[in-house]
Design brief:
Layout (H helix, E strand, L loop, with lengths): L5 H24 L4 H25 L1 H4 L10 H16 L3 H11 L1 H18 L7 H37 L5 H34 L10 H38 L8 H8 L2 H13 L7 H11 L8 E8 L4 E8 L14 E3 L3 H9 L3 E3 L17 E9 L2 E10 L7 H27 L6 H11 L11 H7 L4 H12 L3 H17 L9 H7 L5 H12 L3 H7 L8
Antiparallel strand pairs: 1-2, 1-6, 2-3, 4-5, 5-6
GO molecular function: DNA-binding transcription factor activity; sequence-specific DNA binding
InterPro entries: GAF, GAF-like_dom_sf, Homeodomain-like_sf, HTH_AraC, HTH_AraC-typ_CS
Keywords: DNA-binding, Membrane, Transcription, Transcription regulation, Transmembrane, Transmembrane helix
Length: 559
């Protein structure tokens, strides 16, 4: 005899409906990205888990004993799949791969226990008593599933917070937009877990309560939230996927493939948020800084600091003395101004830093206690990473970081440091070119080309070319390129785009253009396509034009 009532009928139909919706989406949309696939599987597993519980309540399992063979501890698998979804959403899939087998241990353990229980039922409880089977299903399973859900929830939330820190130089609005939807889901699931806990406590403290009736509100609440998650995910995950494609495009346009081998490039692609923050820093900073010392201090203060390190020192090589002296610092060594606390000099070939200067190869020391070359600076630390800095093939210095934690530095840190070293090389080369050409801010050619941009708005021409401008001011295109590169710190394309971006920013924050579509403003400024506009704007500002407009309403009243 089946036991039907209004509540279990509603729950049964709701779970079936959710399952059908998600399966229809899977088979009709041809979803490619892992983030959406993981989310869909999470909804499928949770819907099936609820169907299992409600089938016991209705009596399907008693009437059709074969259904008991299909019972699976999905309550231990759902949090793992949601963790996979979270890591894919945050582009931290490597983190999930590292721990996935550990996370699957509870599911595997209870799958084996359920297998024994199923066999036991079909041999008329010859292995385990009915009381023991009941305790496994109602006590061990449910209590441990709730505990596992809480632990996984805390672990995932800490991953989200770490991701927010890793975004570094990105704006607060950008970070919030990236994580708000995910954190809202987590807060909802945490509240549902609290509801689950209160339900269990109510059952345990009231001896007169029996059956599954007490669980009806909990199951209905879970289903209602899953339906909301599903509806919200349709548009949001499409938007997130588009953002990932845009970031990948911007990443590819940064010409990193010219600087790194494919293996190193693959590592950098797994750390896109940090890479984009570093590229954004070098693209939007340092233009007005023309002294080597100031440049190096600015890099450590505003770029290295975003990597959440304890200590970092940049050494420059004195070729005559063949020693490395500390030029800039981040951490305990930093003092007011451009001063270093008790600066050290290290001979080439001595210590880990000196070895890097001598061999030209990086050093990643997982435990400094096991390396006799280690030289204590302000305090002894347990791991060290040192990367050489070159300018036109000649060693210029060494970027060195230490950490108090053993085995702290990873392959990720190494390639991010090498990226910073290569970008620092480009900036130092620009400073050398400026000195070699004897170009000053009063350079007439530079002032003339700036005048053409400011006064005659040459940048509004989508077909503007270096050769056309050079003919207009009667110098060679090659020399004009050197002048622009040395004085602005940008290549010709970025130099022109900087004027376009400035005009776009002014219009986006001006009330007279509030009804103008963002793309129209970009095209009027001289960009010849939507992709060129969006990629350049994000490269220069660290955010999309739409986000900028939301963040800077009516900032400027005059053009």
């Amino acid at each position: 005899m089946l036991h039907w009532n209004l509540y279990n009928t509603t729950i049964f139909i709701g779970a079936i409906g959710l399952l059908v919706l998600v399966l229809y989406r899977i088979f009709t949309k041809k979803i490619q990205d892992k983030t959406t696939r993981y989310f869909n599987w999470f909804l499928i597993i949770t819907a099936v888990a609820i169907l299992q519980y409600i089938s016991f309540d209705i009596g399907f399992t008693r009437k059709y004993r074969v259904l008991a063979l299909l019972v699976t501890p999905f309550e231990f698998l759902a949090p793992v799949i949601f963790t996979a979804f979270t890591c894919a959403y945050l582009q931290k899939e490597k983190l999930f791969k590292k721990y996935k087998y550990y996370l699957l241990i509870p599911f595997a353990a209870f799958f084996l226990i359920y297998t024994v229980v199923k066999i036991n039922v079909f041999v008329d409880y010859a292995i385990l008593s009915r009381e023991t089977v009941g305790n496994i299903r109602m006590e061990w399973n449910e209590n441990l599933a709730l505990l596992f859900t809480f632990v996984i929830g805390v672990w995932n939330y800490s991953s989200i917070k770490k991701y927010e820190k890793d975004l570094g130089k990105m704006s607060y609005d950008f970070v919030l937009r990236k994580t708000k939807w995910l954190k809202n889901m987590y807060m909802t699931l945490i509240l549902l877990s609290v509801f689950w806990l209160l339900t269990l406590l109510y059952i345990k403290t009231n001896v007169n309560v029996s059956g599954n009736d007490t669980y009806y509100p909990l199951w209905i609440a879970y289903l209602a939230c899953y339906y909301v998650f599903y509806m919200k995910s349709i548009s949001h995950l499409q938007y997130i996927q588009k953002e990932k494609v845009d970031e990948q495009t911007a990443f590819n346009l940064s010409s990193l493939d010219e600087l790194f081998e494919p293996s190193a490039l693959a590592v950098l692609q797994r750390n896109q948020s940090q890479v984009i923050a570093i590229l954004s820093y070098f693209a939007t900073s340092l233009f007005e800084i023309n002294k080597t010392k100031e440049v190096l201090w600015d890099i450590l203060e505003n770029c290295i600091s975003k990597l959440q390190l304890e200590d970092c020192v940049l050494y420059l090589l004195d070729e005559k003395k063949q020693v490395l002296h500390q030029e800039a610092a981040f951490g305990n060594k930093k003092q007011d101004g451009f001063e270093i606390h008790e600066p050290k000099e290290i001979p080439v070939g001595k210590g880990i830093v000196g070895s890097v200067a001598k061999t030209g190869n990086y050093e990643l020391i997982k435990d400094t206690r096991k390396d006799k070359r280690y030289i204590v600076d302000d305090k002894a630390r347990l791991s060290e990473l040192a990367v050489p800095i070159y300018v036109e093939g000649k060693l210029k210095g060494v970027l060195d970081a230490e950490h108090s934690q053993c085995n702290f530095f990873t392959e990720n840190h190494l390639y991010l440091f090498q990226l910073i070293a290569k970008l620092t090389e480009k900036k130092l080369l620009q400073l050398q070119l400026k000195k070699g050409l004897s170009i000053s801010d009063d350079n007439c050619y530079y002032k003339e080309v700036c005048s053409l941009m400011k006064e005659k708005k040459r940048y509004r021409n989508p077909e503007i070319k270096l050769s056309t401008l050079s003919q207009e001011i009667n110098i060679s295109a090659n020399y004009l390129s050197q002048v622009i590169n040395a004085l602005s710190g940008q290549n010709f394309s970025d130099f022109v785009n900087s004027y376009r971006i400035k005009e776009v920013k002014l219009k986006l924050s001006h009330p007279a253009f509030i009804e103008y579509p963002v793309l129209s403003i970009g095209l009027e400024a001289g960009f010849n396509s939507k992709s060129a506009f969006y990629n350049s704007f994000k490269k220069h500002t660290g955010m999309s034009p739409t986000t900028f407009r939301e963040k800077h309403p009516y900032k400027s009243q005059f053009l």
